[in-house]
Specification:
27% strand, 309 residues, Rossmann fold, Hypothetical Protein Yjia, Chain: A,domain 2, alpha/beta, 5-stranded antiparallel β-sheet
Amino acid sequence: MIQVDLITGFLGAGKTTFIKKYVKYLVSCGKRVGIIENDYGAINVDMMLLQDALGDAVDLEMVAGGCDADCHRRRFKTKLIALGMQGYDRVIVEPSGIFDVDEFFDVLHESPLDQWYEIGNVLAIVDSKLEPELSKESDYMLCSQISNAGRVILSKCQLAQEADIAATKVHLQEAINRFHGTRELKEADFFVKDWRELELEDYESILSAGYSVEGHVKLHLDDDSGYQSLFFMNLDITKAELERAVENIFRDESCGKVFRVKGFVEEDVWYEVNATRHEFRVKPMSIGQHVIIVIGESMDEQAIGAHLQ
């Protein structure tokens, strides 16, 4: 049977970066890998980043959003059927935006998928320096993602102090408790290491993470839940100007609660831009698009746009 992995991650945690490394390891082991990008946004920047990094080594498919939950579920199932007929060894599902983890389990138990697929790993990527003050909706997303994770992989630990990591672990358990979850996190559930130093045994450990079956109170999330993705197209802005603008956006309370800024700028070549409150990363790319995406809660588009303009 084809093994399928779900890799979740709270906004800006580094999910796509991890998937690049994880998939490259699987390919180096001779595995045929397919990736499903499950996105509620109109523009899938993460898919472009994976295409640039992985090229023809994997097959990338996208489940577009913009429809109701039943329609989205049918599209997801259709993509899994299509990949299942192509003889892949492993399929990676990367959800983005508002994603109910239960959908992953429910769809895979439907016919004919239950005859083709078995769940391999559920991995949750969490920033080592998790924001201490999160909304009820954000805590629910964390609870949903880590309740069923075989391993919680902390990202950017080289940028965090031990106190930051300890506080993040406490916050995750509190998020579970907030929704009466049954999961009790243990030290063995966490993987904490600088991703630049990952070795063969680390990948083998992650590959055997599996998943957990735990319950929690459901919270319905929809487009009115406070989450927003703001798209700014065709900005005439340099890398340096964008970095200053992003710093100001994170500082300016009138902009709302911004979690992440990502997209591309062009200066002779394309550059990927990925920013959170703690870091601003720029990387050359072979492809790109004139778009900057700002993701957060209760944001003011006019205030953010004023900084970017």
